[in-house]
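Standup, Tuesday
Yesterday: got the pipeline producing structure tokens again.
Today: sanity-check two examples.
Blockers: none.

Example 1:
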Amino acid sequence: MRGRQPWQTHRSRTLRANAPSAEKKLWSKLRNRQHGGHKFIRQLPVGPYFADFACRDVMLIVEIDGETHHTDQQVAHDRRRDAYLRDAGFRVIRFANSHVYDELEGVLRTIAEACAEQRGKTAK
């Protein structure tokens, strides 16, 4: 990973190797520019955080949330995290694991729409 600290590279690789099944399922549809020609990467370090999926061309981050994201403490953490990522210039969209499993086409459609919206913003 270009310009990253060795610990970030190691952490990104570990997160990719131990990805939850919902992330693996979505990655199978996003990888290799097969979703609208957008290049997504997994576990992009952004400051102290690691984005599940990121498309740097349109500054979009896609997060997949498991059951642990429903506690009050985790919701507060996710809000702080999203604020940090927005301040870094990214738009963040989130999906529950269940959406990836049960509504994958809808998730992909939402991602495509977000990419199109972001492309319009970055082109200005």
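Example 2:
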Amino acid sequence: MKFSKIIWISILILLSCKKESETLLTPEKIFIGQGPEDIVLDIQNGTTRILASCNERVKNKPPFSEIVALNLETNQRTLLTRKSEPAFLKFNPHGFYLQIVNGKKLLYIVNHYKDDSKINSILVYELNGDEMTFKKEVRSDLMLSPNEVCALPNGSFYFTNDKGSDDLIFEQLFNKSGGSVVYCDTDGNCRYAEEKLAFPNGLEYKNQQLFLATTRNYGLFQYDILDDGTLTNKTKISSINGMDNIRWNNENLTVSVHPDEIAFVKHSTDEKFHSPSWTYLIDIQNKTAKLLYKNGGYDISGGSTSIEVNGYLYISQVYGNYLLKVKLKD
């Protein structure tokens, strides 16, 4: 083979490889703070930012319990200032939700006291810029193991109990469907809306409908909401197993998935174990799913929430300290 021909073949191969690499997912790690389990979008002064609910869950590490704002244009990180909190409050956020109620931005936050009291609650703050002002705390005997919360425009809300008690071993062996969805009205009166669920997890709301992602029910469910908060007309719109939190992507939903539950449990006990992280786009109308991102846990382990913004996917995680930014294929 002539030398010139070899050169041209080499160039073509290089160009082909370059074109292929440009279509691949190219992840970027953005430091946000320990344990960014849940994320939501917020528009502040015309700038899109992500709010992250951060809480260090690894024992023997320095505590970190904050709501952090990430400017998507500059990657600047800002810890939101909390005001007017009662002295007794122990702030350990988990799932959270941003809703406009009577013209005000309100954050509804699942809170775990993480002490001998074993108190769980929903905290409500008014969000103004980089400040969040405490408004109220809702407690209920039904807050057994709250995971995610979803507020309605009238100020009422739903939350998921991922299990029926705080005894994980008992739940795994004897009460695998001990989870529930609870409805709380604007006065803080709470009642069961759905029971006997296998690790219910993410929640979303739109147009008088509630959407529920479950980890072990092999189901993403849709409900109609009656005026009193009752859920009716339950419909399964996806059968993916291992689902975590869900967020809107136009008229569809993105859902983070733990495809290997055993690996996720191992990861929760030792960061050296990798937990695969997948993200799907769920077409609500056609009840179909498209895989947006798939990783064996090396770029991010235990991915818990995924949000798409301008062609990029932002993925949070339960135990690490960064968000993963992924350029999606066209």
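Quick observation on example 2: The radius of gyration is 21 Å. DSSP finds three helices and 25 strands in the chain.
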